[in-house]
Amino acid sequence: MNRLIWGVGVAGLALAALTSVLLRRPVEPSFTEVSTATESARAPRLNEAAPPPRPALPVSAAEPTRPPDTDTPSALDTTGREPAPSVRARRPPSEPRQRVVQALRAAASGPAARREAVLASLAASGESHAPWTQQAREALDLWRQQVATSVLPIQSPEAPRCFAAGCVSRVTFPDAASYEAAFRLTPELRLPGGSAHLQLPAEHLASGEVSAAWVVLPPDVP
Q1: Angle 205-179-219 (CA atoms, 0-180°, nearest 5)?
Q2: Closest CA to 186 of 164, 165, 201
Q3: What's the whole-number mean pLDDT along residues 20-25?
Q4: pLDDT, tens digit (0-9, with 9 covering 90-100), for 51-75
Q5: How many CB atoms are closer than 10 A to CB 98?
Q6: To 10 degrees, the CA torsion angle through 116, 119, 120, 125?
Q7: CA distance 108 to 57
Q8: Which of 5, 125, 156, 196 has the fewest CB atoms within 10 Å, i.e. the most exposed one?
């Protein structure tokens, strides 16, 4: 009897020890839990990666800017003064100059006709000894000197004659080439007082020389 009781006790102690060992072993996580934890670790953190929302623009800033109204007067117009004209009105030419221009326009085509028309209009205006004629004579002398220096010496068979419409002087070139060189120089001349000047069409002589007439017009009176 004692042996039976002792055997039962030993068996109970062994069973209790085995149960204690089994209860102390850690429980392995299931496959579902591991997969869930891995996916949660790989998933991006939306709260940290997403940028903060931009503030909404006000209505006035979102609308496009309207162009300025062209009917609105500018600050310069509020003074009540009219804007200055961009181009001054051209002063009409003087009567003597109008005669020369009309003679050139009325003449028939051809250099000889234009030359004779201008000379006739000068003579028709009448001889003049006005103060401006002295300056015109000086301008003709300077003209002759500049051509003689830049081209070659020229002959002046007659003294300048002054009329109310202008002063004229005839000059003679030895050949056509020298005349053409002087003709190209004419627009570059700067005469005293800013006098207007022109060289009339040439007259080719039988000797080979070329005769031309220089004209200095009177200054315009304001």
Answers
A1: 110
A2: 201
A3: 53
A4: 555 555 444 444 444 444 434 333 3
A5: 13
A6: 170
A7: 79
A8: 5
Predicted local confidence at residue 130, as pLDDT:
92
Contact 217, 118 (CB under 8 A): no
Which CATH code for domain 95-216?
3.30.980
Token pair, residue 38, equals 């891995």
What are the residues facing 163 on neighbouring strands? 127, 166
* SS3 assignment for the chain: CHHHHHHHHHHHHHHHHHHHHHHHCCCCCCHHHHHHHHHHHHCCCHHHHCCCCCCCCCHHHHCCCCCCCCCCCCCCHHHCCCCCCCCCCCCCCCHHHHHHHHHHHHCCCCHHHHHHHHHHHHHHCCECCCHHHHHHHHHHHHHHHHHHHHCCCCECCCCCEEECCEEEEEEEECCHHHHHHHHHHHHHCCCHHHCCEEECCCEECCCCCEEEEEEECCCCCC
Query: Which residue in this structure is represented by tokens 């117009």?
Result: 77
Q: State the pLDDT at residue 8.
A: 54
The predicted structure's pLDDT at residue 129: 93
Q: What is the identity of the amino acid at 54?
A: R
The pLDDT-based confidence of 36 (bands split at 50, 70, 90) is: very low
d(C-alpha 193, C-alpha 215), whole Å: 15
